[in-house]
């Protein structure tokens, strides 16, 4: 089963527009817009730090295994190599690996991974090559090519850091060969040319790998956004734009959960008066227009991100008001009723000049193990029928005269 898409799986402030624009741009410099770059780092940073730490341990093991060729090819410097590799480089490398595991900022993380490989790996091997006197010690310069592969293919250091690391390795290689008197100039040129090709190929591989990683992130994010949009649409009534019965069932289930016990909840049932006659007289198309207008008024009168409106079926709507007592819920309902009446939507089935009105039933209670949301809905339904029996175009129970919550309170958590 596909994992449900929630706001937690989509970075804040990121929408489809910025994702599509970035994909189309191709991000040739391997940089996203600032918000998207920050989201990318938040998503991959911790895992990447762990991968770099694991790769560092693997590289350290291989690095110390080179004690075997040190012993075979350059026995005169073996004791120095043993002391250098195990006594100095290994402890420092372990500190760098520990720092990487702690998920440092991206600049620190990539610098440590790149500089650690260059300074500790390439630098120590170059040093051992320069101090040796064995006839085969100069072959150690080839080890620096392995450092390139480790940086770009194993650790996959970010491209611009990899470029700097590869160029530093090339400079170290060229300087090292120049300091070996036994190497003629022609051989140095040939060896440096081969090494330069290795640098170019490594940099190219680094670019391709990072671009693929970034593109995979964008495609994943695009898919999540698309699934979220589909998920939202599946919970929305296509005619009115309000949330539908499926969404209502989920909200009710959430309100009935133990963590919601003790929360005061108000339910409002709203029914358009004489709507069947409206449809029979003006037709369903006009009836749909009426439903849309009423739904828009309801939504505009609710508090942002606190209350929710649902199409309950036909011309009936249900409002869920959180942290609201009965008196406040009645006043909010009266404000909505007046707003719909003041909209003066003509009712073709009634006398000339009559407008569309609504009847509303309100109930409120503190959710508990004994009082579930269904009980509050039943109470609101009974209140709605009372409003209809008493002449329609009213709220039941009735609010005190002129006691209506002002529209400016829509964004407040009313108590």
Give a description of the structure:
The two termini are 41 Å apart. Helix 13 (373-389) links the parallel strand 4 and strand 5 (395-396). The relative contact order is 0.08. The chain is elongated and about 110 Å long. The chain has helices at residues 16-25, 34-65, 67-73, 78-101, 106-131, 143-154, 159-178, 185-234, 245-256, 275-282, 284-301, 326-342, 373-389, and strands at 264-272, 308-313, 316-322, 358-366, 395-396. Mean pLDDT is 88; it is low at 1-7 and 401-415. It has a five-stranded mixed β-sheet, with helices on both faces. It has 415 residues and is α+β, with helices and mostly antiparallel strands. The protein folds into two domains: 7-227, no CATH class; 245-411, Reverse transcriptase/Diguanylate cyclase domain (Alpha-Beta Plaits). Helix 4 (78-101) packs antiparallel against helix 5 and helix 7 (159-178) runs antiparallel to helix 8 (185-234). The chain contains 13 helices and five strands.
Give a short overview.
The protein has 415 residues and is of the alpha+beta class.
Mean pLDDT score: 88
In DSSP terms (H or I, runs of 4 or more residues), the helix count works out at 13
Structural class: alpha+beta
Estimate the global geometry from the Cα principal axes. elongated
